[in-house]
Specification:
By secondary structure, the protein is an alpha/beta fold. It has helices spanning 12-22, 46-56, 70-83, 95-104, 111-121, 138-148; strands at residues 2-6, 26-29, 59-62, 125-129, 155-157. Helix content is 42%, strand content 13%. Helix 2 (46-56) links the parallel strand 2 and strand 3 (59-62). Helix 3 packs antiparallel against helix 4 (95-104). The two termini are 20 Å apart.
Amino acid sequence: MLLTIGAFGYTADEFVAALRQAGVDAVVDVRLRRGMRGRDYSWANVGRLEGRLEIEGIGYLALKNLAPTKEVRAVQHAADALARAAKRKRAGLSPEFAEAYEGAILGSLDPADTAAQIRAAGSAPALFCVEATPAACHRGLIAEWLVREGAVTSVTHLGR
């Protein structure tokens, strides 16, 4: 089983409580830039996040190879600009982004190896990124890919 969770919509305490309630024992960070702007989400900046997770007894692993590159992110930024959609309010990813992400990132990876890396972090790992919903985040694409390729049997998306 694999879980996913995003930062938006949580305070640090609520985030940890959601992890605890779901039985998550490791957070697998799939962000390229592991920082967030603004006071409300400063808890999700890598140093603070790692420190809090360590105190809570929850493992942390960064897999930057799963993060979209600047060029791939630009595809979604362009789609957001056309739709006049703010990142925090985005309901889904554009088909162009999904295609670019799968081609540039997932296409170069072995799903079994990727699942093994994730499982090595803990027995109940959660993919972590920024967006509140997996449909609006590349972590959803990762999860779908791992299921489609038979590397993971089920995914649970945590969120509000």
